Amino acid sequence: MSFETITAFLAMGGYATYVFASYGLTGLTLLGLLLTEARRHRSWLRRQHLVQGKAKFDL
Amino acid sequence: MMLLLRELKIMLRSPAGAIQSLMFAVLVITLFPLAITPDPDQLEPLGIGLIWVVMLLSCLLAADKSLASDYADGSLEQMVLSHYPLWWVCLVKSMAHWVSCALPLLLMAPVLGAMLAMTSENIVWLMASLVLGSPILSLFCILGAMLTVGLNQSSALLPILIAPFLVPTLILGTQWATTGGEAFYGYMLAALLCLSLVTLPFATAIVAKIAVSR
Amino acid sequence: MWRWFHQWGSPKFFYHRSGALIPVLALASGLILGAGVFWGLLIAPADYQQGESVRIMYVHVPAAILAQSSYAMMAVMALISLIWRLKIADAAVQAVAPIGACITLLALATGSLWGKPMWGTYWVWDARLTSTLILFFLFAGVLALRNAAGQSQTAGRAASVLAVIGLINLPIIKYSVDWWFTLHQPASFTLTEAPAMPFSMWGPLLVMVVGFYCWFFLTWLIRLRHEIVRREVRSDWVQQMMKQ
What we know:
The complex is a heterotrimer of chains A (59), B (214) and C (244).
Chain A: H1 6-11, H2 16-52
Chain B: H1 2-13, H2 16-35, H3 40-43, H4 47-72, H5 75-81, H6 86-115, H7 120-148, H8 154-178, H9 183-212
Chain C: H1 2-7, H2 11-18, H3 21-43, H4 57-84, H5 87-119, H6 127-149, H7 153-184, H8 199-231, H9 236-243
Helix pairs in contact in C: 2-8, 3-8, 4-5, 4-7, 4-8, 5-6, 5-8, 6-7
């Protein structure tokens, strides 16, 4: 572990805003894009099924 | 050759395009001192870059119009189907664009330079860099025009597409002029010109076939 | 052997077979990225000069690498779609363009956030950031052309040509921006070129890069499958799939 205490970790040597903002942005982007695309595909399939008529949908 | 004459005739008949490009350039050059400072000492080092940017913008603006009328009346399709090699057609179009848009600006460069308090030596190098660099701009602009011809917002779209490709020319041209003609940059610019002359008309020809099949 | 490759060119085959890849890639990205973040954020040492802010490197560098290589991949797909007229390649280009654009924006944002502690300002016209910005414009151009030209096949071909031209110009642009920067480098600015990184630093970096790529292929695959099904909605195999 590079940090002695959790407080030290959260402080990030004074750069907390920048480091956590970067990681946060990255997480948001990666997860966001992934989930948006997955959801878009799923809901499209669901709508097509409603039009066509039946059950199983995948991703 | 007939094609070239045709283009020149069309341009001579309505010099509106050239005049518009000139007016735009002078206007933008006027805006800069108004926005920044009239102080000649501060304007002088910016002169080369500003005029290069204005040249770039003018070329982009004029590019959209250059193919629009040809597309609308079907003559673009005729050119694609004709027995003329398509790369030659595209090259001629680029030359026409250069003559109608870049050349007037080139000739006006001393005046624009004087408005920005540039020294006469700088103006000479500026013109030299524009002579080598503006044909490259025209070649790229015609490529962009061919990519966007017939589309809805082609005039707004074209700059977005083509501007990144103009960056190397801009950098090389301004550097060559700013350093008072250091040979290396001149050679690089000339090399870029040769490369563009040899490759871009063919690329534009490929795009022309796509554009016409829309 | 060639036939095996050829099979994957068929939308139907691709769609049905690639479904299995998704949970694999999802698991891989999750685990690898998780491990990378843990290693980079918690275990890796702080830098001597930059302190803890060096940890931003573990997200910025993978994003920047991915931004460039995703453009290259897009352009290669574009070339394939132009030469071999493969519809699936065209779908791949359409699928990857927005992802690449977003990753480029992320690289710009994280680079900017890294710049503030390093150089004191959020934006610096250094070679890397400037060429990443231009890369973003290249992505935006392909997206804009695609958008304006519609969904037809010719629209796809125009955007593909643009992507290929962009790829050919990319080295020229990068070279000229790099060179422009070395000429104008302000005296007070020192390029923090990383000296040979110890394993404790390039280890997590490598893991993050691999993780980013896994995520990239996962998202691309999902988008590609969506594109395929959307384009082929009237075909028999899609109709069949719906009825099941």
